[in-house]
Write a structure and sequence with these properties.
Organism: Bradyrhizobium ottawaense
Shape: elongated
Structural class: mainly alpha
Radius of gyration: 27 Å
Number of domains: 1
Protein name: Formate dehydrogenase
Length: 63
């Protein structure tokens, strides 16, 4: 019976450790502050050829 007891304790401890590390990583990421806004990462040059092909079939004079 002691073998089953210690196996259960070890499994519970391992699971608890993983959960604590995940929580710590989440909290540490948010305490450090939000990520800085980088406009170049969100910059879009406009609709591409696939968009034009899909939406401008009836209006070729617009582009």
């Amino acid at each position: 019976m002691t073998s089953i007891f210690w196996t259960t304790i070890a499994t519970f401890g391992s699971t608890l450790r993983k959960a604590a590390l995940a929580l710590f990583g989440f909290v540490a990421g948010h305490v450090a502050g939000p990520l800085r806004y980088r406009p170049e990462a969100h910059y879009m040059r406009g609709p591409g050829p696939k968009w034009r092909e899909k939406y401008l079939q009836d209006h070729p004079a617009r582009w």
